[in-house]
Specification:
Blueprint: H1 5-27, E1 33-41, E2 52-55, E3 61-63, E4 69-74, E5 79-85, E6 88-95, E7 103-107, E8 123-125, E9 131-139, E10 142-149, E11 152-161, E12 167-172, E13 181-184, E14 190-193, E15 197-204, E16 207-215, H2 216-223, E17 226-229, E18 233-239, E19 245-252, E20 258-265, H3 267-280, H4 285-300, E21 307-311, E22 314-319, E23 324-329, E24 335-340, H5 343-347, E25 354-357, E26 362-367, E27 370-374, E28 381-386, E29 392-396, E30 399-407, E31 412-420
Parallel strand pairs: 1-7
Antiparallel strand pairs: 1-4, 2-3, 2-5, 5-6, 8-31, 9-10, 10-11, 11-12, 13-14, 14-15, 15-16, 17-18, 18-19, 19-20, 21-22, 22-23, 23-24, 25-26, 26-27, 27-28, 29-30, 30-31
């Protein structure tokens, strides 16, 4: 697997700059032990996103990325972690000493509701029935699909599609690469992830291949926090060990200096959630347990997740804590204005993730299983499509792309569908 110098150099520089800054930031909190965790579906061995991982008897916790990975910072060991997800049975693990290895956790699914999904007439099916999809990602207008042909369960294959869903290229991975998912980095590169390594997908002339092997913990240490690049800066997001302090900073790619940008704590959010929990305690015992379980799994340890994105020459800070969208100039990082976010999003106790369609320069939120567009100039939310239950959802070019499970009388497989945003 060859790697052309110009392809890998930019990525290596990113790792160097970011790791240098990360060591500075890490040095400010050396009393914390970092634990790398990978959460997988016990049946499919696929990564599970939005898994809550909480140190019992504390408010220290985090959530996994869509590929099932996360880092948890603990002040001391030993400790017991509670792992929970609404679609899986809870699990507990005990960590008694620091480790450099990634801790892999397998969760047992409760009910595979994906098997009951029927593809509706408004959705375009992207992948044929004889190909089972494991994961997909969209980078620079190319759809990268990782999967297996049904007649050969040993050969992992990458399909490359264009935005019209037309196949452009196909290549098999070496037998030495056993992938668990795909990862899109902040430079819009796509990577194949295994339990121990990450590989970059590259194009050389007219062919596609993989190169640039990275150790998985080092890769996630940098890439999980990197969010996007502008002409002058690489932007990163970091959370405190408890998750209630969120900060954004940039790295000047010329001077290699770290530029502090935005820092916010969300303790008031935590207090609000505690008040809600006390309210739930007032329910009769016969129904209280159901409410408490749902609260703990979906709400309790999730502070508001502020978001940052750049469109054209402006950086938009979705500041849910203060109920506004703040505007900053991309060049000087100066505040230039704000608008109020629709109050229904601010009053909601749900932790909703902002989803960006950079191709269309639009922002969305998946709120209570319905997609809403957020007008970045007025803060208004506009109802769009109903969102179906899926393994993964990506918005690109005005379409919803889903990874869903399908079952019929003859076979059971996973595929990708797309649906135009109304």
């Amino acid at each position: 697997m060859g790697c052309t110098k110009h392809v890998c150099l930019k990525f290596w520089l990113l790792l160097f700059f970011a790791s240098f800054i990360f060591r500075i930031a890490e040095g400010q909190g050396q009393d914390h032990e970092k634990i790398a965790i990978l959460v997988l579906d016990k049946s499919t061995h696929e990564g599970i996103g939005n898994v809550n991982i909480v140190l019992t008897d504390t408010k220290i916790g985090t959530s996994t990325l869509p590929n099932g990975c996360c880092n948890l910072y603990l002040k001391s060991l030993p400790g017991k972690l509670m792992i929970s997800h609404v679609s899986y049975y809870d699990s507990e693990i005990f960590i008694n000493k620091p480790t450099e290895d990634t801790i892999t956790i397998y969760l047992e699914p409760k009910i595979n509701t994906l098997d009951e999904i029927t593809i509706s007439g408004v959705q375009d099916k992207v992948i044929p029935n004889n190909f089972t999809v494991i994961d997909f990602s969209i980078c620079e207008g190319k759809i990268f699909v990782l999967g297996l042909y049904n007649n050969d369960k040993r050969k992992y294959t990458i399909k490359v599609l264009n935005t019209l869903l037309e196949p452009q290229y196909l290549f098999e991975l070496p037998d030495t690469i056993l992938p668990v998912g795909l990862f899109k980095d902040c430079l819009n590169n796509c990577h194949i992830l295994t339990k121990t390594s990450a590989y970059q997908i590259i194009k050389t002339d007219t062919t596609w291949d993989v190169c640039c092997k990275y150790e998985i913990n080092s890769f996630h240490k940098i890439m999980d926090d990197c969010i996007f690049q502008t002409n002058k800066y690489l932007f990163f997001k970091q959370k405190s060990s408890k998750g209630y302090l969120q900060s954004f900073y940039g790295i000047d790619v010329e001077t290699k200096k770290m530029i502090p940008f935005i820092q916010q704590d969300d303790i008031s959010r935590y207090n609000q959630l505690m008040d809600e929990f006390k309210f739930l305690q007032k329910h009769p015992p016969s129904i209280r347990m159901e409410f408490e379980i749902r609260f703990l799994e979906e709400i309790m340890y999730k502070p508001f997740t502020n978001a940052l994105i750049n469109f054209r020459d402006t950086i938009f800070h979705f500041n849910f804590k203060d109920g506004e969208i703040d505007y900053y100039s991309e060049e000087k990082l100066e505040w230039i204005g704000e608008t109020t976010i629709d109050s229904c999003l601010i009053n909601s106790i749900w932790n909703d993730e902002v989803i960006f369609d950079k191709a269309e320069k639009k922002a969305y939120i998946n709120w209570k299983h319905k997609l809403f567009e957020i007008n970045t100039l007025t803060g208004e939310i506009i109802p769009k499509n109903d969102v179906i239950h899926s393994h993964k959802m990506i918005i690109y070019g005005g379409y919803l792309f889903y990874l869903i499970g399908v079952e019929n009388h003859f076979q059971k497989y996973k595929t990708i569908t797309r649906e135009k945003i109304q």
